């Protein structure tokens, strides 16, 4: 292990002292090494979390597109149902008209001219 010397600010000295006491670390050098390990672990975890955020954003986009497609499909089916219902109503009205003409046999009735 190589030896490194640096000047620490008072707040850093206090942090290291608290860390030594809290985590039962036997020296300031060990506390500094501990801080470096934590920083390295945090960087790795940060990279993993950034990747997870990217994946989740892609999933959100995919789900939004899927939702949009489902809504468009539903609207298309609703329009088709309305069209079919209108056509059925026209057919029922036409059948009722034809039925009336057949029952009465009134060929001269203008309603039966179709």
Give a nutshell description of this structure.
This protein has 114 residues and is an all-alpha fold. The protein is built from 2 helices and no strands. The mean pLDDT is 89.
Number of E strands: 0
Assembly context of the chains: single chain
Q: How do the helices and strands follow one another from N- to C-terminus?
A: HH
Cα-based radius of gyration, to the nearest Å = 40 Å
**Percent of residues in beta strands?**
under 5%
Largest sheet descriptor: none
Q: Give the count of helical stretches.
A: 2
Q: What characteristic shape results from the CA principal axes? A: rod-shaped
End-to-end separation? 104 Å
Helical percent range?
over 70%
Low-confidence segments, given as residue ranges, are none
What class do helices, strands and sheet pairing give?
A: mainly alpha
Question: What do the pLDDT scores average to?
Answer: 89
List the helices and strands and how they pair.
Blueprint: H1 10-22, H2 28-104
Please characterize this protein's 3D structure.
The protein is mainly alpha-helical and 114 residues long. It has helices at residues 10-22, 28-104. α1 (10-22) packs across α2. The radius of gyration is 40 Å and the shape is rod-shaped. The mean pLDDT is 89.
């Amino acid at each position: 292990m190589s030896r490194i010397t640096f000047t620490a600010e008072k707040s850093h000295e206090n942090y290291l002292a608290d860390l030594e006491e809290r985590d039962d670390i036997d020296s300031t050098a060990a506390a500094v090494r501990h801080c470096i390990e934590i920083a390295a672990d945090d960087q790795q975890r940060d990279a993993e979390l950034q990747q997870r955020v990217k994946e989740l954003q892609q999933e959100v986009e995919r789900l939004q597109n899927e939702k949009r497609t489902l809504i468009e499909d539903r609207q298309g089916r609703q329009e088709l149902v309305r069209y079919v219902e209108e056509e059925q109503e026209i057919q029922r009205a036409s059948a009722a008209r034809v039925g009336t003409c057949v029952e009465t046999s009134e060929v001269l009735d203008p309603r039966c001219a179709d």
